[in-house]
Amino acid sequence: MKYIHLIVCTLMCLAFFLPVNAENKDGGKLNTSEVVVGHIKDSYEWHITDISGKPVVIHLPVIVKSSTGWHVFSTSNFAEEADAKGYKKGPYNLAIVTQGDNAGKIVELQNGEEIRPFDISISKTVAVMLIDAIILICIVLIPARWYHKHKATDPAPGGFTGFIEMIVTYVEDNIVKPGIGDGYEKYSPYLLTCFFFILTCNLMGIMPFPPGGGNVTGNIAVTFFLALCTFVVTQFSGSKHYWKDIFWPDVPVALKVFPLISIIEFVGIFTKPFALMIRLFANMMAGHAIALSLTCIIFVVAAIGGATFYGMSFLSVLMSIFMMCLELLVCFIQAMVFTMLSSIFIGLARAKAE
Q1: Are residues 204 and 112 in the same domain?
Q2: Cα 112–115–120 angle (5° rounding)?
Q3: Which of 70, 102, 124 is the last residue of a domain?
C-alpha cells in the first residue's frame, strides 16, 4: 500500500508541478495546473468538451445588480476571448476577469476600476447542485410512493426501493442511533438528508459528462453551509448539562477562576463544525485533483513520443481507473463520516448528567 501511495503522489507532482512538454494545436504550451484548477473551480458557464478546436459549453444565466440596476442575461453575451487587460466584456459595462484578484468573477468596469456587483448568478456549481437536488427528491419519492401503497405486514420491497431501504436502515441503525441515543428519531430526517445529499453530489461529481461533473462537495461554500446546519442543530439541541460543562465545568476551583477549560470548550463549539467543513471539502477536492492530474500525464509526455509516451499513457490510464474506483469508495465514506460526526456532536450536546 505504501508503494501505491508513493506512485500516486509522484504522478500527481509530475502532472501538477513539472514543466509541460506537450503543445496544443496553436503551438503553445499546455499548462496542466490551469487544466486541473479549471475543472475544479466554479465558473459561469458549463464547459463540456472541444470539437475542432471550438469549446462546447452550456451557457448559464447571469443575475447581478450593478450601479445601473438588476440585469439578467446569458453568459453567451460575454466575449469568448479576453482582451489585452484580461476582460471578457459583456453588456452593461460588465466583464468576466481572467487574471488578478477577481479572476473568474464578474465585475463592473467604472473608470478603469473593478467593482464587484451583487452577484446571485447560476454558476456551474449551483446548476449541478440543483440537478442533484432533483435527483435526490426522485430517490426519496420513488420508495415513498411504494410505502404509501403497501402495509407494514407486506413482503419487503425489492429492486431500487429495497436498495434505498437497505441504505436507510444501515445509516439509521449503525450511525444515527448509536451516535445520538434515545430520541434519535427526530434527528433522523436531517441526518439522512445530509447523507443522501452528500452521497448524491459525490457520485455525480465523478461523472465526467452532464448532468454530472460538478465539484459540489469540493466547493467550500457548500461544505460551509452543511457544517453550519449541523452547528445550529447541535447548539439548539444542547442540554443544561452541555452548557454547564462548557462555562462551569467540574474542575478544581483554580481552573474555574482562571477559565482555561471553559475557553477551550467554548472554542471547541466552533472547531467541530469547522473540522466537518474542511474534511469534506479537502477530501473531495483532492480526489478530483489527483484523478485529473493522472489524466494530464498523457499530454505532458505526448511530445516525447516513443516507448516513454506509450508506457506513461498506459500507466496513467491504469492509475486513473484505480483512482475512479477509489473515488467511488470515498464518495460513500465521506457521506458516512459527515453523518456520523454530526450525530456524535448532537448526541454529546444532548448528554445529561449522570
Answers
A1: no
A2: 145
A3: 124
